[in-house]
Amino acid sequence: MMSLSKLLNLSDSLWYSTKDPCSWKGVRCSSGNSSVTGLSLSAFDLSNSNFLPAACKIETLQDLDLSNNSLSSISDEFINDCGRIDGLKLLNFSKNLLGGSLPTFNGFAGLESLDLSFNSLSGNVGLQLDGLHALKSLNLSYNNFTGPIPVNLRNPLLLEELQLSMNGFQGTVPHEIANYQNLNLIDLGSNHLEGSIPTGIGNLARLRILLLSSNNLTGEIPANISNIPTLYRFEANWNGFGGTIPSGITRYLSFLDLSYNSLRGPMPTDLLSGPNLLLVDLSHNLLEGAIPAKVSKSLVRLRLGSNRLSGRIPPSFQTLDNLIYLELDNNRLTGEIPHQLSFCRSLALLNLAQNDLTGPVPALLGNLGVLQVLKLQLNNLSGDIPSEITRLQLLLTLNMSWNSLTGSIPSSISSLQRLSYMNLQGNNLRGRIPATIGSMDSLLEVQLGENQLNGTIPSMPVRLQIGLNLSSNLLQGAIPETLSRLKDLEVLDLSNNNLSGEIPVSLTAMQSLNQLILSNNQLHGVIPEFKQYVSLNTSGNPGLKNKTSEKLARKKGRQNGVIIVVGVGAFLLASFIFFLLLFLGEPKRDRTRTISVQR
C-alpha cells in the first residue's frame, strides 16, 4: 500500500498522514483491519495507469473501483497480475478514456462484476470474456463495440445482468440469450439490432427489466412476455414492431414503453388496468378504437398521443389520483372534455390537442392546482375562456389556439404570474387585450393573432423573447413606443390590423429583433432604418415611404429648383442685354438723320 501511495502521488493528505492504510480515503479493510479488501479510486483524477500492477499486489483485494478517471489503457501486466487474485469480485473501469479493443481477461476466476461502460472501446466482443466463469454482471454500455451480441460466456447460468446499450452491435437478438436463466436485467438499447424478439425471452422467469429501445427490431411483441411474473419494466420504443399489443402484457408491469413503432389495432381492454402500472407510453403508433375505460389507480403517466384513437375520453379517469401526465393529443377523440378530469388533482400536464373535441372548456379544470401545462389547441372547442383557468397559479404553458372560443380574454389572466407561453391564436376572441398583461413578467411568448381583438396595444411584458403576435385583429391607434423596451424580443407581428401613425424610430433599438411584420395597416411617414439582419415587411401601407426614396425626392426637388433659378437668371440676363442694345441703338439712328439734314 505504501508503494501504491507513492505511485499515485495523491494530493489528499489522508494517504500520507498515517501508516495505517485502513484509514486512507477509498480503502476498505476486513474486520479487525487485518487486510485490505476494497480499493475505490473513483474520481481521483488519475490519468497514468502505471500504478495498476501495484494495486494487484494486494492479494486480499475483492473490489477495485477505478471509475470516473482519465485512464486510457489497461496493461497486460495488470491483466496478468490481477487475474491471479481469485478473490477479486468487482472490477470497475467505467467512465474513463479506454480505447482500442476489449482486453482478454485471463484468470479472474472469482470475478462477478465487470463494468467497462462509458469508454471508447471498439471491435467485436468474442472470446475475451470466455474465462470469466463466475461473472454475474457485465456492463459494456456506451462504447463503440460492433458485431453480434456476445452470448458465449462459459457459465450462462450465473449471469444476472447484461448491459450492452449505446453501442453498434448488429445482427439479431440471439436465441441463446434464453439459456441465461438467472438474467434479471437485459439492456440492448440503442444498437443496430434487427429481426424479432426471441420467444424464449418469455421463459426467463427472473427477468425484471427488458430494454430493447432504439434498434431496428420488427415483428410482433411476444405474448408470453406477459407470463414473466417478475418483469416490471419493458421498453421497446423506437423500433419497427407491428401487429397488435398482446392482451395481459401489463399484468405485472409497472413501466411499459412501446412508443414510436407501428403497432396497430385496438388496445386490449385490460391494457391500462394492471395493478402495478405507473407509466404507459404507446404514443406514435397506429392504434385505433377507444381508450379502455378500466384504468389502474396507480397510473402516474399515460401517453397515447399520435395514434388513431377515437371515441370519448373515459370519465373513469376521475379515479386517477396519482396521474401526473396525461397526453392524448393528435388522435380522433370526440365529445366534450369530461369535467371529471378535474378530480385528477395531481395533474401537472394535460395535453388534449389536435383532436375533434367539442363543447366548452370545463371551468372545473381550474381546480387542478398543480397543473403546469395545458394544451387544448386544434380542436372545436367553443364558448368563453373560463375565468377559473386563471386560478392555476403554477401554469407555465397555456395553449388554446385554433378553436372556436368566443368572448374576451379574462382580465384576471394577469394572475398567472408563472406563465411563460400563452397561445390563444385562431379563435373568435373579442374585446381589448387586458391592460394588466404587462405585469406578467414571466411571459416569453404571446400569440393572440387571428382573432377579433380591438382597442389599442397595451404595454407588454418586458421579458418577451420568442415572439409577440397580434396580427389579424381589429387593433387601432399608434404603435406604442413602449414596445421598444422589449430588448430580447425576436419576432414582432402586428400585421393586418388598423394601426395608424408613424413607425416609432425607437423600434430600431430592439437588439434581438430579427423579424418585424407591419403589413396591411394604415401607417404613414418614413420607414426608419433597421439593422440589416432584421426581416421587415411593411407592404400594404400606402402612406409609408422608404428613407432612401425620401432622400431622392428631396435631391430631385433641389435639382429642379436649381434648374428653375438658372433658367430664370438666364432669361433675365438675355432680356437685359436685348434692352441694352435697343437703348444704345436708338440715339445712333437720330444722329444720322441730323447729319443728313444739315448736308
From TrEMBL:
What PANTHER family is this protein classified in? LRR RECEPTOR-LIKE SERINE_THREONINE-PROTEIN KINASE FLS2, RECEPTOR KINASE-LIKE PROTEIN XA21
Signal peptide limits: none
Q: Which keywords, in A-to-Z order, does the entry hold?
A: Leucine-rich repeat, Membrane, Repeat, Transmembrane, Transmembrane helix
The species this protein belongs to is: Salix suchowensis
Q: Does the keyword Nuclease apply?
A: no
Q: Is Repeat given among the entry's keywords?
A: yes
InterPro entries in the cross-refs: Leu-rich_rpt (IPR001611), Leu-rich_rpt_typical-subtyp (IPR003591), LRR-RLK (IPR052592), LRR_dom_sf (IPR032675)
Q: How is this protein named in the record?
A: Leucine-rich repeat-containing N-terminal plant-type domain-containing protein
Q: Which SMART domains match?
A: LRR_TYP
Q: Which residues cross the membrane?
A: 561-584
